[in-house]
Amino acid sequence: MTTPLRVLFVTSELNPLAKVGGLGDVAGALPRALRELGVDVRVALPKYEVIDIAKYPAKLVVKQIPLSRCGITENIAVWKTVTPQNLGHGGWQRESGHTERSREALAEHGARCDRVPGLRTRERNIEVPVYLIDNPDYIGSGGIYFEKTAFVGSFKEIERFLFFSLATLECFAALDWWPDIIHCQDWHTGMIPTLLAEKAKRDERYRSIKTLYTVHNLANQGRWNARDVTNFLCLDLPARDDGDLNLMERGLRNATAINTVSKTYAKEIQTPEFGEGLARLLKSEGDHVYGIVNGVDQEFFNPETDDFIKQTYTQETVNDAKSENKRDLQRTLGLPESDAPLFGLVSRFTSQKGIELVAEILPDLVRAGAQCVFLGVGEEHLEQKLTDAAKRHPQNIVTALRFDAKLANQIYAGADLFLMPSKFEPCGLGQMIAMRYGTIPIVRKTGGLVDTVTPYAGGKTDDQGWGFAFQEFSTEALKAAALEALEVYQDKPTWQHLIQNAMAYDSSWIHAAKEYVALYHKIV
Ligand code: GLC
User: At 175, is the secondary structure helix, strand, or coil?
Assistant: First the structure.
């Protein structure tokens, strides 16, 4: 028997222990799928103060590992827990201690933490070991990220993740477990390949370890004054022309291999429009920027077992159930109970998500007799726009500025259409969740939205499409797609066909996991 591949999945977020956005969802689901394929994958996560140890029992496995940095010695402790387990009711996200930002991001992706886990997971008993890296000075207080936007606002945040990266590399001997691959996520772990190379200079046990660096959002790069960073690490690293050091860039330059979370985004980020200043570097990697499309947790998002929705359903029962869920949603929102087409949007309200475009087409949607519900929080001016629209058209529009796990799923199940006109979208989850619930997505043709939504092609009975897509990031283009959708909505047999196609889309994690395994093998 060959020994399984050992992969350490290093992440700043992990659903349900410490989740802010989509990265947390990926970390919560992908390692589990990899384990099912026989990979000895383990997760390393900072032991944040917000992790509820009562709910996710962790054992102290290494009390003290000394970490020498710049002539001083600091200590690390390592705790061990497993995921998923104990995902039960009660909702970790409802407790205090969670940042605004966590609630905000949860609103984007709806409910997945607040429920009893699918029995199937328990039966399969897939448990992923999670190492919680502990240090009181850098990790043990102050939430997950320090800013509502999750973008870096202070050196404290850079320091936290530099320390976490150093500490992670220091644990292998004490744990008596050496990975073949360290799988890094986003800027927080971007320094790991560099630090690994430094370790390897002095310790041969580090020499065979390879790295995979995954970009979840290129816009958030972890940039800071190079002097502060190099002083913290006591390493002589080159600054960029602007005097900064960019942790995302370090990861991209120094990892054995790099990938992102959809095939289209992998291509897009090699262009100036999407490259966030790193297009030239990414273009030089060309075909070596792999794209692997994320999945959706099939147990958390399952219309067959969802206890938040009025009527559970399958592909066979969707038509009746959807009407019932729609009426229930209309009642809940105080909208007239009618067959008016109902648009849903569950998102962070940021310009990345194209919220201003949505706000601008509202008069047209209202004129066409549609209803809309917007759930989420975010940039104030966008919240304001959607709130104003709801005030102006109370019979048609409801804006809920909050995180509401239950309402999110009620929208996924009860709406007819789901809006996701993102300016850019590395992968996107909302559209896939909507599809699982038979809700037809209207998306911009970008990133993961291209890879996951096949547009309706106009009336052929063998049409395999299930969404509406537009290219140009403009009000006119979104409006045209929405009006086309409204027209098709009137044609019930066609609409039902679209719903069937949407629900047939297989968003399970197994496909991505297989691609990651192939990439891991390529790397080692
Ligand atoms: C980021 C991206 C989102 C992606 C997620 C998980 O949040 O914005 O598109 O789905 O990461 O990879």
Answer: helix
